[in-house]
C-alpha cells in the first residue's frame, strides 16, 4: 500500500518541521542524513497515475457534476425513469472531457517548464574535480561554479570570486524587478580559496543557519572553519533567480535547494481563485435544488391525491403491481419529477460558461492594442476562469519599481547659482512642451559624451563652454562625489556601474557637459575636464546613510587645494550652509519647489574649501573613530558633522524617475472609474511620494495627505484615528461592521464611510507593521479606505500580502494586485486578480499571475474594455440562460396538473435532449462572446460605465428573483395559450387536432420562438455570427423536427420516433402559427414596456451613453492633447539613494575595485512614440439627473 501511495506522490508521513539547517561542505553523506530537499522543483499538479482519479475527484467536488451523476443513477431505475439515459450521459461526458483536456494541457505545460529548469547545467565540485551536472542533481553542501551571465543555481553561500575584495555583481530582476546591479562580498577566509580546485575540494566548513523561509532581505547563520566561527548575513548569500553580471567566475556553497530556496518559498501555494459570480452561482444552485425539491413535492402530493381519488377508476384496465398504493405512487413520482425537472440546472450551463470564459480570454490574447512592439510581448490571459471579475475591480494594489516606473533616471533640470536650466522656451519667453521633435543639445564637441544622453536647454552648454566657474564647479562636484564604478570597454567608450540609478544619471550628466569621470583607484579619481585630463587625490569619503541623507568627498586638486564636495537632501544641506548663501538659498528653494511640483527627485549641492592644518587634525580624529570597536557609526557621524558645516551652496539637481508610458493617464482613468489605487513599495518615503505626484495619484487638489511614520503602536493608532476624524468628524469609534453567516462561515464586512473631498495616505513599513496587528488592523482599514490613494513605503513582501488580505477579507470589493518581481508574488496570489508585468527580465510575477502584459498602461484597457465587456456578457448570458431554462421547466410543472401528475413530459423526448445542446446553445454563446453595449472608444470616454460592475448591478440575487418571476409569467403564457388554442379545436377538414403530440409540438415551437425573440431583445451588438447562430438554430429546429417526425424515421426506429406525421399535419394550420405569434407577443410585451419606461423615467448610465452614441452616429473625435499639469508645492523630496548604506568604505579600502572589460546589452530600449494608447483620455461628466436621452 505504501508503495502505491508513493507512486501516486502521496506523502504518508508527516514532515518534521526544520528548526535549524546544519550542513558540511563537500560531504554529501553527512548532508543526506538530514534528508534535505534536492535542487529539483515541481510546479506540476498531476502525474501519470494521479491525473485521471485526482482530476475526476476535483470535478465531482463541483456540486452540479455530482448532481448529474445522481440523476443518471435515478434514470437507470425503470420504475421512476421517465427519460432515456442518454439525455444525461451525453452532456455529462462532454463536460468532463472538456475539463479533462484543458487541465491535461495546462499540466503538460507545467511539466515542460519544470523539465527545462531542472535540466539546466552547472559545474559542481565532485570528488575533487569539476563536473557538469543538471540542476536537479545538485545537493545541499555541494560547491558549484558560476560564470558570467549565468543564473544562480540555488541559494548559495559565496565563497570566492574573480574580483578583488571577493566581490561579485548580481542582477536581481527575477526577485524584485530592479535591473541595477547589486554587490555581494565573500568572507576573507573563503575568498582566499580563489579558484584553486584542490583547496576548494579540501574545504570542510560547517554552516548552521535559519531554516527555509521567504524573507528575501534577511539571512542569519554562522560558518565554522577549523574551530573558528564567522557570522553570516545576507551580504554573503546569493539567491536562486539572480543573475551573475560583470564577474568572470565565482564559487558558492549550496545552502538551500529547490523548494527550500527563498525564490520558491515566496512562490507559495497556488490558490484556486473563484469569481464572485461563481460564489453567487453556488448559492443559487443550492437554492434551485431546494426549489426543485419543492416543485417535486407539490407534484408528488398531487399524484398521491389523484391516485387516491381517481386512480381506482383505472384499475380495471391498468392493474396495479402487488403492494402498490397511492403513497408508493407519490414517492416514485417525486423521483420521476426530479429527473424531468432537472433542466432548472442544466449541465450545458457549465459547458457554455467554460466556452464563454475561454473565448473572452482569447480576445485578450489577440488584442493588438495591448501588444508591446518594442519587447515583442503580447497580453496574455494565463487563467481563463476570472475574466468577468476584471469588470468588478474596486481596489488596485501596485508595486512601484518596474511596474509604474522603468527604473531609468534621467537628468532633467538643475539650478546653478540662482539660475534654472532645463526648461525650453520660445522667442516670446513662453514655456514649450518637450517632444521628440524638440531640438536637442549637440554634444559632438565632447568626444567622450554619452550618445544616449538627451538635453534640450542650450543655455547650459553655453554656460559651461564660456567657462562659468559656478557651472563648472557644479558638474565637477557631480563627477567627484559618488561611488560609481567606471568600465571602459574600448578607448573612450565608458559604462558606469552605479548602485543607485540616480547616481548613474548625475555622473552621466557631468560627463556630457564636459566633466568626464574616467577612472578611479582607492586613492585617486581621474576626470577629463573640458578635454583636459585631471587627477584628484581622494582623501576621504563621508558616506551616505538613511540618517545623514547626504554624502561628501574630500579631494585635493592638482594645485594642492583641499575641497569638500557634498550632495544630499535639500533640507539637510540647507541646515549646514554658511550665512553667505542665504539669498541664494531662497532662490534655489523656489526652483526646488518648481521641480518637486513636476514630480522630480531633487538634490542640493554644496562645497567648502578646507584649511590643510585643520584637515590634518580632523583626519586623525576620523581615523580614531573609524577604528573604534564601540559605537563606531555614532562617532563617525559626529566627526562628519564637524566638517560638514559652513558650506557654500552651488545649486540643485532634478532627476526624473522615468515612468512607463501612459501611467499618469491610466491612473487618472481608473480613478474616474471609482477604482482606488494603493501603491505598496519597498522604496523610501520620498521616492514613493514623488512617484505618487508624478502619476497623478497624489494631487494638490486633495484636501490633505496624511503621513503616518511613528515608532510605537500607540502613536500609529493616534495618527490613524486623527486622520479618520479629520476626514469624517461624525465617524464613531467602533467600525460600521455588517456581520453575515453563510455555509457556517462568519464574515465581518466593514462598510464604507462617507467622506467629503479627496484625501491621500502615506504610511511607512515600520508603522504598517504596528497597524497590521490584530487589534489595530480595522482602524487602518477604515482610515485607508476613506482615502482615494494609499502609498505604503518600505514594505516587505509579506506585508504586501497582508494588506491585500485585509482589504479582501473585510470589504465587499474585488481586489487586483499588479507587480513584476518575486517580491510581488505573494501579493499577486493573495488578490482576487493577479497581474504580472512582463517584457523585462523578471518573470516570477508573470509565472504566478492570472493576466500579464508588458506595460502598466494596458491595465486600463484590460479593465475598462475587456473586463467590463466580460462582466456584461457573463451577466447577460446567465440572465438569459436561467430565463430560458426556467421557462422550459415551468411548462412541465403546469402540465403536471393536466396529466394526472403522472410525470409525463410535455415535450417530445428528442426536443428535451437537443434544447440546450443544439437549439439554444449557439445563439446564447454568440451573444455572450460578441455582445457589447458600446465600443472600446466610448468605454474610455465614459469611465463611469465601469461602476455597475463594482456594485454587482447586472447579476445578483435580486436579479435572479426577477428572472424567476419573468420565467413564471412566460411559462404560463406558453402553456395556457396553446392549451386554450388547442382545446376542442378541429382542422380545416373537420378532423380533431387536440391530440397530445400536436400540443407538444405547438408548445415546444412557441417556447423556442419566444426565447429566441427574447435573445434578440437582449442583444445590443449584432454581428454576422450572431445572425447566423440565431436563424441557423431556428432553421435547424424545423429541419430536425420534420425529419424526426417523418414516415422514414418511424419505419426505421419505430420505438424512438413515435411522432409520425405530427409536424406536417399541425404546422400547415393557420391557427397554429397565429398561436405562436400571439404567445411571442404576450411574452415580450412586458419586457419591451418595462425597458421603454425605464429609459424614459430612470435611465442608467449605459442608456445615456448609448443615446449619445446614436446621436453621434460616428466614432467620437480624438481627444485633444493636454499639456502636463504643473504642481506648485512646498514639499520636496530628498535624494533617493536605493541602497541603505553607501560604498565609501569599499572605495577607499586600499585595493582597486577592478571590473573586467565586457560588453553589456542595453537594458532598456527607447520608449514608444506617443500613439493613441498613451494619449490622455478625455473625461466627460454625466450627471444622473441630467436630461433624458
What can you see in these coordinates?
It is a multi-pass membrane protein. Residues 723-743 are annotated as: Disordered. GO terms for molecular function: ATP binding; ATP hydrolysis activity; magnesium ion binding; phosphatidylcholine flippase activity. Pfam families: Cation_ATPase, PhoLip_ATPase_C, PhoLip_ATPase_N. One of its GO terms (biological process) is Golgi organization. The protein contains 40 helices and 35 strands. Strands 14-35-34-33-15-27-32-31-28 form a nine-stranded mixed β-sheet, sandwiched between helices. Strands 17-16-26-25-24-23-22-21-20 form a nine-stranded antiparallel β-sheet, with helices on both faces. Helix content is 42%, strand content 17%. Helix 33 (957-982) runs antiparallel to helix 34. The protein has five domains: 41-121; 138-260, Calcium-transporting ATPase, cytoplasmic transduction domain A (Distorted Sandwich); 370-403 and 660-855, Rossmann fold (3-Layer(aba) Sandwich); 409-658, 3-Layer(aba) Sandwich (Calcium-transporting ATPase, cytoplasmic domain N), CATH 3.40.1110; 865-1102, no CATH class. It is elongated and about 130 Å long. With 1189 residues, the protein is an alpha+beta fold.
State the gist of this model.
This protein is α+β, with helices and mostly antiparallel strands and 1189 residues long. It is 42% helix and 17% strand. The strands form seven sheets. It has a nine-stranded mixed sheet with strand order 14-35-34-33-15-27-32-31-28, sandwiched between helices. The chain has a nine-stranded antiparallel sheet with strand order 17-16-26-25-24-23-22-21-20, sandwiched between helices.
Amino acid at each position: 500500500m505504501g508503495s502505491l501511495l508513493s507512486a501516486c506522490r502521496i506523502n504518508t508521513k508527516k514532515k518534521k518541521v526544520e528548526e535549524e539547517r546544519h550542513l558540511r561542505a563537500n560531504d554529501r553523506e553527512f548532508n543526506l542524513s538530514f534528508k534535505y530537499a534536492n535542487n529539483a522543483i515541481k510546479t506540476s499538479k498531476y502525474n501519470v497515475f494521479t491525473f485521471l482519479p485526482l482530476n475526476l475527484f476535483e470535478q465531482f467536488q463541483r456540486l452540479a457534476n455530482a448532481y448529474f451523476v445522481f440523476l443518471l443513477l435515478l434514470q437507470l431505475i425503470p420504475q421512476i425513469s421517465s427519460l432515456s439515459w442518454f439525455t444525461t450521459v451525453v452532456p455529462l461526458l462532454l463536460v468532463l472531457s472538456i475539463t479533462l483536456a484543458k487541465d491535461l494541457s495546462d499540466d503538460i505545460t507545467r511539466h515542460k517548464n519544470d523539465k527545462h529548469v531542472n535540466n539546466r547545467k552547472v559545474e559542481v565540485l565532485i570528488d575533487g574535480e569539476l563536473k557538469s551536472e543538471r540542476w536537479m542533481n545538485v545537493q545541499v553542501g555541494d560547491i558549484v561554479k558560476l560564470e558570467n551571465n549565468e543564473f544562480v543555481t540555488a541559494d548559495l553561500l559565496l565563497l570566492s570570486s574573480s574580483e578583488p575584495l571577493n566581490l561579485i555583481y548580481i542582477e536581481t530582476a527575477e526577485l524584485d524587478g530592479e535591473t541595477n546591479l547589486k554587490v555581494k562580498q565573500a568572507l576573507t577566509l573563503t575568498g582566499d580559496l580563489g579558484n584553486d580546485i584542490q583547496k576548494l575540494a579540501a574545504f570542510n566548513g560547517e554552516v548552521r543557519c535559519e531554516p527555509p523561509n521567504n524573507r528575501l532581505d534577511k539571512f542569519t547563520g554562522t560558518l565554522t572553519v577549523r574551530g573558528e566561527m564567522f557570522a553570516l548575513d545576507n551580504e554573503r548569500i546569493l539567491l536562486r533567480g539572480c543573475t551573475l553580471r560583470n564577474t568572470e567566475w565565482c564559487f558558492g556553497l549550496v545552502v538551500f535547494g529547490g523548494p527550500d530556496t527563498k525564490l520558491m518559498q515566496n512562490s507559495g501555494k497556488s490558490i484556486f481563485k473563484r469569481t464572485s459570480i461563481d460564489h453567487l452561482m453556488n448559492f443559487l444552485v443550492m437554492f434551485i435544488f431546494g426549489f426543485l425539491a419543492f416543485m417535486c413535492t407539490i407534484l408528488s402530493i398531487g399524484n398521491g391525491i389523484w391516485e387516491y381519488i381517481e386512480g381506482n377508476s383505472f384499475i380495471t384496465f391498468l392493474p396495479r403491481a402487488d403492494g402498490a398504493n397511492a403513497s408508493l405512487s407519490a414517492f416514485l413520482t417525486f423521483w420521476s419529477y426530479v429527473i424531468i425537472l432537472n433542466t432548472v440546472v442544466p449541465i450545458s450551463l457549465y459547458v457554455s460558461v467554460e466556452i464563454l470564459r475561454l473565448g473572452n480570454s482569447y480576445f485578450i490574447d489577440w488584442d493588438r492594442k495591448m501588444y508591446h512592439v518594442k519587447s515583442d510581448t503580447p497580453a496574455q490571459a494565463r487563467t481563463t476562469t476570472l475574466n468577468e471579475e476584471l469588470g468588478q475591480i474596486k481596489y488596485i494594489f501596485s508595486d512601484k519599481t518596474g511596474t509604474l516606473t522603468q527604473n531609468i533616471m534621467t537628468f532633467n533640470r538643475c539650478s546653478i547659482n540662482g539660475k534654472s536650466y532645463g526648461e525650453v522656451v520660445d522667442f516670446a519667453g513662453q514655456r514649450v512642451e518637450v517632444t521628440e521633435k524638440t531640438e536637442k543639445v549637440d554634444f559632438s564637441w565632447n568626444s567622450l559624451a554619452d550618445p544616449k544622453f538627451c538635453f534640450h536647454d542650450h543655455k547650459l552648454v553655453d554656460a559651461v563652454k564660456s567657462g562659468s566657474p559656478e557651472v563648472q564647479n557644479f558638474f565637477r562636484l557631480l563627477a567627484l562625489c559618488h561611488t560609481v564604478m567606471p568600465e571602459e570597454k574600448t578607448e573612450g567608450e565608458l559604462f558606469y556601474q552605479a548602485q543607485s540609478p540616480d547616481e548613474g544619471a548625475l555622473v552621466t550628466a557631468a560627463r556630457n557637459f564636459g566633466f568626464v569621470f574616467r577612472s578611479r583607484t582607492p586613492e585617486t579619481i581621474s576626470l577629463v575636464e573640458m578635454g583636459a585630463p585631471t587627477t584628484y587625490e581622494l582623501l576621504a569619503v563621508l558616506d551616505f546613510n538613511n540618517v545623514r541623507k547626504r554624502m561628501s568627498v574630500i579631494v585635493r586638486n592638482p594645485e594642492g587645494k583641499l575641497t569638500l564636495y557634498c550632495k544630499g537632501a535639500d533640507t539637510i544641506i540647507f541646515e549646514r550652509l554658511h550665512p553667505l548663501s542665504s539669498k541664494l538659498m531662497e532662490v534655489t528653494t523656489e526652483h526646488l519647489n518648481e521641480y518637486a511640483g513636476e514630480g522630480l527627485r531633487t538634490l542640493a549641492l554644496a562645497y567648502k574649501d578646507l584649511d590643510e592644518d585643520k584637515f590634518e587634525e580632523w583626519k586623525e580624529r576620523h581615523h580614531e573613530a573609524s577604528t573604534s570597536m564601540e559605537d563606531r557609526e555614532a562617532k563617525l557621524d559626529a566627526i562628519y558633522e564637524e566638517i560638514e558645516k559652513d558650506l557654500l551652496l552651488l545649486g540643485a539637481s532634478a532627476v526624473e524617475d522615468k515612468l512607463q508610458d501612459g501611467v499618469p493617464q491610466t491612473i487618472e482613468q481608473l480613478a474616474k472609474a471609482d477604482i482606488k489605487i494603493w501603491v505598496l513599495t519597498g522604496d523610501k518615503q520620498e521616492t514613493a511620494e514623488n512617484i505618487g505626484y508624478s502619476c497623478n495619484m497624489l494631487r494638490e487638489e486633495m484636501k490633505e495627505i496624511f503621513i503616518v511614520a511613528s515608532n510605537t503602536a500607540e502613536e500609529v493608532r493616534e495618527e490613524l484615528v486623527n486622520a479618520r476624524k479629520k476626514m469624517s468628524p461624525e465617524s464613531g469609534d467602533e467600525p460600521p461592521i455588517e456581520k453575515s453567516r453563510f455555509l457556517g462561515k462568519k464574515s465581518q464586512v466593514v462598510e464604507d464611510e462617507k467622506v467629503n473631498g479627496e484625501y491621500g495616505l502615506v504610511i511607512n513599513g515600520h508603522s504598517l507593521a504596528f497597524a497590521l496587528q490584530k487589534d489595530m488592523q480595522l482602524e487602518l482599514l477604515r482610515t485607508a479606505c476613506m482615502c482615494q490613494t494609499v502609498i505604503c513605503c518600505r514594505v516587505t513582501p509579506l506585508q504586501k500580502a497582508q494588506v491585500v488580505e485585509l482589504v479582501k477579507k473585510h470589504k465587499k470589493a474585488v481586489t487586483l494586485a499588479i507587480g513584476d518581481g518575486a517580491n510581488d508574488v505573494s501579493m499577486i496570489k493573495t488578490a482576487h486578480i493577479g497581474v504580472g508585468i512582463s517584457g523585462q527580465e523578471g518573470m516570477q510575477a508573470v509565472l504566478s499571475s492570472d493576466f500579464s502584459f508588458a506595460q502598466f498602461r494596458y491595465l486600463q484597457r484590460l479593465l475598462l474594455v475587456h473586463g467590463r465587456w466580460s462582466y456584461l456578457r457573463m451577466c447577460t448570458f446567465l440572465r438569459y440562460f436561467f430565463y430560458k431554462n426556467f421557462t422550459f421547466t415551468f411548462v412541465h410543472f403546469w402540465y403536471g396538473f393536466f396529466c394526472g401528475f403522472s410525470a409525463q413530459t410535455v415535450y417530445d423526448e428528442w426536443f428535451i435532449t437537443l434544447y440546450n445542446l443544439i437549439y439554444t446553445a449557439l445563439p446564447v454563446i454568440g451573444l455572450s462572446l460578441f455582445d457589447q453595449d458600446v465600443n472600446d472608444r466610448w468605454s474610455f470616454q465614459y469611465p463611469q460605465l465601469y461602476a455597475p460592475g463594482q456594485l454587482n448591478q447586472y447579476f445578483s440575487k435580486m436579479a435572479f428573483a426577477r428572472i424567476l418571476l419573468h420565467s413564471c409569467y412566460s411559462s404560463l403564457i406558453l402553456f395556457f395559450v396553446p392549451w386554450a388554442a388547442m382545446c376542442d379545436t378541429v382542422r380545416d377538414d373537420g378532423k380533431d387536432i387536440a391530440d397530445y403530440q400536436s400540443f407538444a409540438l405547438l408548445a415546444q415551437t412557441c417556447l423556442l420562438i419566444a426565447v429566441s425573440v427574447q435573445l434578440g431583445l437582449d442583444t445590443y451588438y449584432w454581428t454576422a455570427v450572431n445572425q447566423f447562430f440565431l436563424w441557423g438554430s431556428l432553421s435547424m429546429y424545423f429541419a430536425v423536427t420534420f425529419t424526426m417526425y417523418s414516415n422514414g424515421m418511424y419505419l426505421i426506429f419505430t420505438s424512438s420516433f413515435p411522432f409520425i406525421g405530427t409536424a406536417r399535419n399541425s404546422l400547415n394550420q393557420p391557427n397554429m402559427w397565429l398561436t405562436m405569434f400571439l404567445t411571442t407577443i404576450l411574452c415580450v410585451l412586458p419586457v419591451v414596456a418595462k425597458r421603454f419606461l425605464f429609459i424614459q423615467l430612470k435611465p442608467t448610465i449605459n442608456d445615456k451613453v448609448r443615446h449619445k452614441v446614436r446621436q453621434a452616429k460616428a466614432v467620437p473625435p480624438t481627444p485633444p492633447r493636454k499639456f502636463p499639469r504643473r504642481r506648485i508645492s512646498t514639499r520636496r523630496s530628498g535624494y533617493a539613494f536605493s541602497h541603505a548604506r553607501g560604498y565609501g568604505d569599499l572605495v577607499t579600502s586600499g585595493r582597486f575595485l577592478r571590473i573586467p572589460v565586457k560588453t553589456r546589452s542595453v537594458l532598456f530600449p527607447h520608449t514608444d512614440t506617443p500613439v493613441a494608447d498613451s494619449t490622455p483620455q478625455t473625461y466627460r461628466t454625466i450627471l444622473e439627473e441630467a436630461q433624458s436621452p
